[in-house]
């Protein structure tokens, strides 16, 4: 069927490319992607050879209109470098305009780093807010964090290794020392998920780690899981008896 197919690709483990994703990619008249080298490599490793076209949200209106025209008679697939397109990745304008033009639009689900991290962090998942990347500049970053501080939901951020230490310190400062998880290199050989308070994570990652990262943070007011030491129990008892 002609139209626009949003296809999720792996976030590190090639085994996560679904059978449906493979089938749609193999049937594509054109695969619109962020970087033809990255997607070319994925298709090559999967034994698929289809025409690639670079496309992102900065593409001019004419390039987008041409792609939408093709969707009338052809199978147009949109992928990003990794994971689910549109999630901190290009595609929103293409989907918006394809819908406005009455094209068939569908999505083939698969890997997404945010959801993968949420499922392994051990923090509440009943309500979460995906906040994407924090701004690089300190002032703008503090502003965004302040906006999110009162949101009664688990917060999910994307981050890069080099920026992790600064981000964790800024988050501890702006949100308070909440429980959190740093999920790194998901689905890859060196996958890790380190949990603790934001300040303990900032100490743990004082040296910037390598790789791709998702930060998951508990909602405000969620109890901080702390091992009660004998001294702290004694101190609490003394304080209670003194009252
Ligand atoms: N669309 C992608 C998705 O569905 O997850 C996200 C694209 S965004 C440009 C890239 C960011 O996603 C990385 O900087 C990192 O924060 C996160 N990410 C992607 N792959 C990851 C992985 N394997 N482990 C941890 N984080 C990952």
UniProtKB/TrEMBL annotation:
Any one GO CC term of the record: cytoplasm
UniProt keyword rRNA processing, yes or no: yes
Gene3D superfamilies assigned: Cobalt-precorrin-4 Transmethylase, Domain 1, Methyltransferase, Cobalt-precorrin-4 Transmethylase, Domain 2
Residues annotated as domain Tetrapyrrole methylase: 4-201
Reactions catalysed: cytidine(1402) in 16S rRNA + S-adenosyl-L-methionine = 2'-O-methylcytidine(1402) in 16S rRNA + S-adenosyl-L-homocysteine + H(+)
Enzyme class: transferase
EC number(s) reported in the record: 2.1.1.198
Record's keyword terms, sorted: Cytoplasm, Methyltransferase, rRNA processing, S-adenosyl-L-methionine, Transferase
Subcellular location: Cytoplasm
Main location: cytoplasm
CDD domains (UniProt xref): RsmI (cd11648)
Family label: Belongs to the methyltransferase superfamily. RsmI family.
Role description: Catalyzes the 2'-O-methylation of the ribose of cytidine 1402 (C1402) in 16S rRNA.
The name this protein goes by in its record: Ribosomal RNA small subunit methyltransferase I
Recorded name of the encoding gene: rsmI
